Structures are given as C-alpha cells and as structure tokens.
Known about the structure:
About 30% of the residues lie in helices and about 20% in strands. The chain contains 2 helices and 5 strands, in the order αβαββββ.
Amino acid sequence: MKKYLFGLFLIIGIYACDQSVGQTNNYGAKITEEGAITMKELVAKMETQKEVTAKVTGTILKVCQTKGCWMTIDKGDGSSMRVSFKDYGFFVPKDIAGKL
C-alpha cells in the first residue's frame, strides 16, 4: 500500500511541476521600451548632468549568477557600465548575458 501511495504522490508531483514550466511571475508595473534611450545617449547626458533618471537599452555583458542583483552593460564604445539595484529591490534573470 505504501508503494502505491508513494507512486501516486510522485505522479501528482511531476504533473504539478510540469504545469509551472514556461510560466513567469511579474510583479509591479510592466516596463515597456517607450521613452528608452541608448547607452550612448545616456553617456552624453551624464557629461552635462550630475544625475539622470532614464530608461536605457543596451547589450548586457554579465549578470550576477547568485541572484541577478547586478549586471554590466556595453556602453557602445568598448567599455562597460555596472548597474546595481538599490536595496536589492530589483533582480534580472541570470541567463540574459549577451541579450539586448
């Protein structure tokens, strides 16, 4: 009887895990590309301003493999910029290196 119960729970567990494959959870407001600037535009703005609030697009070079709590982005001139998130308030997927 124990073998049958174990098998039943195993089958139910596998089925439950299969249902979550491909699903993502989004929290907070959805981020769109509307109003985003390139890294080159950001660098140009930073030359004349001390602080810039901006939405930026760029190729991600590296990502923290522990939590996704920082990333480096190609600045478009052969150098990169490290981006970290205040108080661990935001995380990025760990497999997005090389993506725009």
